[in-house]
Specification:
The chain is 38% helix and 13% strand. It has an 8-stranded mixed beta sheet, sandwiched between helices. A 3-stranded mixed beta sheet has the order 1-3-2. It has a two-stranded antiparallel ribbon with strand order 4-5. It has one domain: Amidase signature (AS) enzymes, CATH 3.90.1300.10. The chain is an alpha+beta fold and 494 residues long. The chain has 16 helices and 13 strands.
Length: 494
């Protein structure tokens, strides 16, 4: 088992995505050279992590060669914002026609399922110049916060390989945390960007509802709860990617308001003196002292940066009816999604085709009537209005991401205790999927035994620019890039 040191270490030989793109643009490295280096890192580290479950070497090399040729000819594709940067896509929601798509499901894996369409997101990633060379591990259909699917086995946390990366974007988070790639695709329907970012010491921004298109096959995932983004080591990487994927597409059911400038430019701006509410407790259960300490320290740091900080929380945040309505919507939406997978397999799916918890959720969906589903949606809309009122007198809410540091692998998969543990841990993130507001996990704390603990920052509707400005300020004041895990792609920690 690998245990982490909490001491900062050097990683000067591993660049973030923006620096990597600059290396390519300047001619300091070709896209093929950058790809080969990433493939070598994956070959060395992935056997220990199990972050990448499908390699796309041939198509990636073709993309890299095209980028090199375009740069040599002075064509526009050679100057795409992240041209030449090695990249990975989570095996969920983002798909390219003809490439494997299994969504963490053993039946789709056994059938060798291939995507039949290319999502708008995959197109936008390609237009950014990213070189996608693999698919990352995810729990079955993205339905839990640990990445341990039966189809592909568990993904190990680079900070301590006996612990979970979180989920459902755990494969992407492990690959970025270990330095295989600087940035990777992730998505979030209840915390699936923020939880892995917290567990793996990364920056993870869940964009606003409607910010990133789910087309052409979906309009609003999980009734608008789900949104795509990335996990990254630097704030500017996430911002630059968001600039490239926050593009409305014809037929999208709704769009988020456009930013005043670019998201990347916001990273370097002073956010001004913000009114910040701090929440270190949950009415639903206990919060581990390390997670509470992370938030308390963050509040003190924010005060030192000139922000007005007080202990305050929206009154409706921990409404006792929240999870019943959230679960109703997620169950029905996943039951509908199951139909698409059945069409791909050409047959109905049975209990033997899914994991036990997945099938139980589908059974809940089957028992929900149409009127009950609409009532749950209306409840969530009303709850959102109640919570949103808090932002009339505040700019940011600061809270834990999870109630505990990363659990050990196997804890959340225990058939007797796993479901209860899931409810214990997930008390701060799903609210902002229902509310649709942007929220981010910032790596600001490590436990004495070296596990990362993220702190969550939530803004009002369409406030990604403000959150990115705050994240940039925090990154400059309390830089985390010097901390690297024991399972690391660069030189050995010194």
């Amino acid at each position: 088992m690998t245990a982490a040191s909490s001491q900062p270490t050097s990683h000067s030989d591993v660049a973030d995505g923006v620096t990597t793109a600059e290396m390519f643009a300047s001619g300091a490295a070709s896209a093929v050279e950058l790809l080969d280096a990433a493939l070598a890192r994956a070959e060395r580290l992935n056997p220990e992590l199990n972050a990448i479950i499908c390699r796309l070497d041939n198509s990636a090399r073709q993309t890299a060669e095209q980028l090199d040729a375009a740069r040599g000819a002075g064509a526009g594709t050679g100057t795409a914002p992240l041209a030449g940067v090695p990249f990975l896509t989570k095996d969920l929601t983002c798909a390219t026609e003809g490439q494997p798509y299994h969504a963490g499901n053993a039946a789709l894996k056994a059938a060798g399922n291939l995507a039949t369409t290319t999502t708008h997101l995959a197109t936008m990633f390609a237009e950014l110049g990213l070189v996608n060379f693999g698919r990352t591990n995810t729990p079955e259909f993205g339905l839990t916060i640990t990445t341990e699917p039966l189809a592909y086995g568990p993904t190990a946390n680079p900070w301590n390989t006996g612990h979970s990366t979180g989920g459902s974007s755990g494969g992407s988070a492990a690959a970025v945390a270990a330095g295989i790639v600087p940035v990777a695709h992730a998505n979030d329907g209840g915390g699936s960007i923020r939880v892995p970012a917290s567990n793996c010491g990364l920056f993870g921004l869940k964009p606003n509802r409607g910010r990133v298109s789910l087309g052409p096959d979906s309009g609003d995932g999980w009734a608008g709860f789900s949104v795509d983004g990335v996990v990254s080591r630097s704030v500017r990487d996430s911002a630059r990617v968001l600039d490239g994927i926050a593009i409305p597409w014809p037929g999208d059911p709704y769009w988020a308001p456009p930013p005043s400038g670019t998201f990347e430019s916001a990273v370097g701006r002073d956010p001004g003196a913000l009114r910040i509410g701090v929440c270190m407790h949950s009415d639903w259960g206990p919060v581990d002292p390390e997670c509470a300490l992370a938030v308390d320290n963050a509040g003190r740091m924010l005060e030192g940066l000139g922000h007005h900080v007080e202990h305050s929380v929206p009154d409706a945040l921990f409404d006792e009816n929240f999870f019943d309505n959230f679960r109703t919507i997620v169950a029905v939406c996943n039951l509908v999604g199951l139909g698409a997978f059945e069409a791909a397999l050409g047959r109905p799916m049975s209990r033997a085709d899914t994991e036990g918890d997945t099938w139980a959720l589908m059974q809940i969906g089957r028992e929900v009537t149409g009127s009950q589903y609409v009532a749950a949606v209306e409840w969530c809309h009303a709850w959102t209005r109640r919570v949103a009122a808090w932002w009339s007198s505040h700019d940011v809410l600061v809270s834990p991401v999870m109630t505990e540091p990363s659990p050990r692998l196997g804890e959340l998969r225990n058939p007797e205790t796993g479901r209860g543990r899931l409810n214990d841990l997930l008390q701060f993130t799903p609210q902002w999927n229902v509310g649709g507001q942007p929220a981010m996990s910032v790596p600001l704390h490590w436990t004495p035994d070296g596990l990362p603990v993220g702190v969550q920052f939530v803004g009002p509707h369409a406030s990604e620019e403000m959150l990115l400005s705050l994240a940039g300020q925090i990154e400059r004041a309390e830089p985390w890039s010097g901390r690297v895990p024991p399972v690391w792609a660069g030189a050995s920690p010194s």
